[in-house]
Amino acid sequence: PVLILLGPPGAGKGTQARMLEEQFGLVQLSTGDLLRAAVAAGTDAGKQAKAVMEAGELVSDDIVIAILRDRLADADCAKGVILDGFPRTTVQAEALDTLLAESGQKIDAAISLDVDDAAMVDRISGRFTCGDCGEGYHDTFKAPAVAGTCDKCGSTEFKRRADDNAETVAARLDAYHAQTAPLIAFYDAQGALARVDAMGAIDEIASTLGDIVRRAT
Ligand code: AP5
Ligand code: ZN
Fold it and tell me: What pTM does this model have?
């Protein structure tokens, strides 16, 4: 299956994608994570993406589509994928349709996580992740059971993202509304859209998404 999670920064795309990955044995494909890895590795794409990401703007369609296409060709993706943060523009959505058609696949569901912008600043500014296994946390909403120790792997190394400051978050929200929100109508027209109120508790949202995935696949 191919699932898409749409939603503004902080909506919980990464959090829910990782839960669906465990529950359904799918592969989470986050273009944000792939781009951050390219920046860290200092590849050409990473060098071009770095400043754009720090400004909270969208990296060019060419770069992102190329990165996604490469990753999608990996053998593990045959199990099915959850796209987290891709597509983000109409050009990317059309490129994805073409890519999937080439391998006889289609989108099973595009799930929009609906939230209010004001709350997103709090979610993002409290966010941190495990430096070893990548598990996501939040200072107030999802703190580790033992302070300073990862629930999943026991690591004591945590990191915060360079673009998680109030100014960049505002630019990321603007980019979402201008360039990504039109995809809600795009997937509605394809009959693939599901909308979920993503202001509730993480586990409740996860159970709603689980029902949608079971129905769609
Ligand atoms: P990306 O990495 O995709 O970031 P984003 O879209 O801004 O999304 P976030 O990762 O900030 O939020 P999320 O929805 O995953 O929320 P999370 O689950 O972490 O993109 C970064 C940059 O890369 C972009 O700005 C752009 O420059 C570039 N880029 C990436 N893809 C691109 C593309 N396709 N095209 C062009 N450029 C691209 O949750 C947030 C926090 O809230 C966590 O701490 C979590 O614990 C907590 N939380 C989650 N759910 C809840 C809940 N229900 N209640 C309370 N707290 C919650
Ligand atoms: Zn960990």
Answer: 0.94
